[in-house]
Design a protein that fits this description.
It is a single chain. With about 475 residues, the protein is of the alpha/beta class. It is about 50% helix and about 20% strand. It has 15 helices and 14 strands. A hairpin with a 2-residue loop joins strand 13 and strand 14.
Length: about 475
């Protein structure tokens, strides 16, 4: 068999590449299309697909050209690209190598995304006050995703590795295509019938078209209305969907959602161990402190000499009693002094002299009035028709008589109140220990009393005390 006519794949790809590269029409191509599957490499190169309604072509833009672009491309963005078409020999695929890129408006999907985002944000579906708390240690977790994709494997394996005691329940749903959104909504409502602590809703990465089910309004509202806290786990870290904004927590990836949903069992065990150590140390310190306190009380002077506490109080009581007795004696002394002053008062003992002095003073005033009136009349030689000396004399005498009556009334009252006059009438004052006795109940047999009469004192000893009945 002659094999000279056969060539290698590499030779074929090189030949096709040379034909394409030597075609002048393909060396400067102007394309309009929508970006999809955009990826920015760590070295600065951009890889993406440029598509329209019917076709697509792979595209690459090297770092030397991306630095000239004044915006960051995203999936769904419509752009105008200038570049050349060539063949990548390793895969035999042809692609466009872009050297210029400008915006050609925003793709339809991106416009729909922004419009729905603005609408739901105005309604408050993104508000933090509606975000439900994700439990730190869940017992049961629900997962809404495709049953055969990589996402479910990553989520379950991560949960089992980190927190194997947690139960997981899969609610299988379509996550791509026209029927995906109703399927996701149905499973969210079904999950609400289970006793779940948290619900993970998501899928793996893909183009904006692949992830579009999580940008549907019915899915957003179902997430918002869910009674179970929801973690959104859609695509990769750079992918954002409406579900991310409505959910109670957004995870960058499905694996990240599993890590956020459950704690690390090793960390919990370490924490419990540390708490146990701290608790034991705290108890030991508390016990040591209480032992010191008990020993302090046991060795205290008061407990060893309890009578000393009574003696201190008793001594204080003696001091208080002494102060009280001194105060009472001082008070009695002051009141006795006042009483002696009152009893020795000259006016009280000599009311007639007081009256005579006041009457003499009044007569002196009357005489001065007579004298001064006569002197004024004589000096001015005034003949008074209506005001004569005789009239003044009569008026003055009238007031003197009234004054005499008032003074006599005062003297009579003083004589009645004067205690010594009571003694003159046969009354007596009985005293015991210099205190006046007004109640027979204050006396008892063998008491010594002093009876004060008008002209002397009698000292007696009581043989018997009797009280009148009815008193």
């Amino acid at each position: 068999m002659n094999t000279e006519n056969y060539i290698t794949v590499t030779d074929l790809n090189k030949y096709i590449k040379s034909i394409v590269d030597n075609n002048s029409h393909l060396q400067n191509v102007y394309l309009r299309g929508e970006i999809s599957n955009f990826k920015a490499h760590t070295r600065g190169h951009w890889y993406f697909t440029l598509k329209d309604e019917n076709s697509r072509i792979n595209a690459i833009m090297f770092a030397s050209a991306t630095t000239k672009v004044k915006f960051t491309p995203i999936d769904g963005m419509k752009v105008l690209i200038t570049g050349k078409v060539s063949v990548y020999e390793a895969s035999g695929a042809y692609q466009i190598y872009a050297n210029e890129m400008i915006e050609d408006g925003i793709g339809n999907l991106h416009i729909a995304f922004e419009q729905l985002k603005l609408k739901l944000e105005k309604e408050g579906l993104f508000d933090k006050k509606y975000k439900k708390r994700i439990p730190k240690i869940p017992n049961k977790i629900g997962i809404i995703t495709a049953p055969t994709g990589a996402a479910i494997k990553d989520i379950i394996s991560t949960i089992k590795r980190r927190f194997p005691i947690c139960e997981t329940i899969l609610f299988p749903a379509l996550v791509q295509g026209v029927d995906a959104a109703p399927s996701i909504v149905k499973q969210i409502k079904k999950a609400g019938e289970y006793d779940l602590d948290v619900l993970i809703v998501g899928r793996g990465g893909g183009s904006i078209e692949d992830l579009w089910a999580f940008n549907e309004e019915i899915v957003a509202r179902a997430i918002f209305e869910s009674k179970v806290p929801i973690i959104s786990a859609v695509g990769h870290e750079i992918d954002f969907t409406i579900s991310d904004f409505v959910a109670d927590l957004r995870a960058p990836t499905p694996t990240g959602a599993a890590e956020m949903a459950v704690p690390n069992l090793i960390d919990i065990l370490n924490y419990i161990s540390q708490v146990n150590i701290r608790l034991n140390e705290a108890l030991k310190k508390k016990i040591d402190y209480l032992n010191l306190l008990i020993n302090k009380y046991k060795n205290s002077y008061i407990l060893k000499n309890p009578i000393s506490m009574y003696e201190i109080k008793d001594q204080k009581l003696d001091g208080i009693i002494d102060k009280l007795n001194n105060y009472i004696k001082q008070k009695i002394y002051v009141e006795n002094t006042r009483l002696r002053q009152i009893l020795s008062n000259y006016t009280l003992n000599n009311p007639e002299n007081f009256y005579n002095n006041k009457r003499n003073n009044l007569m002196d005033l009357i005489n001065k009035v007579y004298h001064n009136t006569n002197k004024i009349i004589q000096n001015n030689k005034v003949i008074v028709a209506k005001f004569d000396i005789k009239h003044i004399t009569n008026v003055t005498k009238h007031y003197v008589e009234i004054s005499d009556i008032k003074i006599n009334n005062i003297i009579e009252k003083l004589e009645v109140l004067y205690p010594l006059n009571s003694l003159k009438r046969g009354y007596a004052v009985i005293k015991k220990d210099n205190k006046i006795i007004s109640d027979v109940s204050k006396l008892k047999s063998n008491d010594v009393i002093t009876t004060e009469l008008n002209n002397g004192f009698i000292e007696s000893k009581i043989i018997n005390v009797e009280m009148k009945e009815g008193i």
